[in-house]
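User: two proteins, same treatment. go.

Assistant:
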Amino acid sequence: MTVRFYTKTNCPLCDKALLILEELQEEIDFTIEERDIYTNDQWLEAYGVMIPVVQVNGEDLQYGIIDQNDLRKRLLTFFE
């Protein structure tokens, strides 16, 4: 499974969210595809005020302040 992670540089919330994703990778098998919103106008328009955004299969699972426990539960639903 691939988790799309919409982010930008110099974003403390993004840095914290990435650490959460990396910790969850120790429990759940997925890859992280980082997408810098400043490299694509569509991403910037869609996610500019929401980042960080965690997305799987086109579904935004969480954005802004990422909660590790809630995200774990959401990710595990893809393996049921």
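Protein 2:
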Amino acid sequence: MTENRLERIDPDRASAEQKKIIERLGEGRGRIPTPFNIWLHNPRLAEGMEIIGTHIDQTSVLSEVEMEVAILATAIFWNAPYVINNHRRHALKAGVPEPVVAALLEKRRPEVSAGRLGTICDAVSEILAGAKVDDARFATYDQELGRAAIAELLVVVGYFTSVSLAMSLHALEPKA
């Protein structure tokens, strides 16, 4: 088994810049989420990620179900076991239907009927695939989700791509 590569920042020994971010994380999240133990080694980066992560965590235009579908699909795309395990639980707790979670875990497009959640599944799938979205498809996303949700999906996929890659690179394993 690969040794855990995570090197946590000791808050008592942190630089002034790191302490500022740790304080903001405490205010915004009440804790230091695991990826920040990676990003805090670059305080300017951690500061930007804190702003994005706290927004996603607290003020998203997406529902919790929509957010968890996007997060879980991203973690699965990047084969990030730690994030998959964590967000599988979050998704079910948030109310993502079990068949949707199962389909995502099996790398299948969830069989969600028409509606916002189906559109979210389609959009996230196309974003992750790097697909060129034609005008008609984009118009559907715009009409059913709106520009704010489209922008948010792009950021959620990007942010959780970084989370997934960071956790995998640092050899973090799922909690038992």
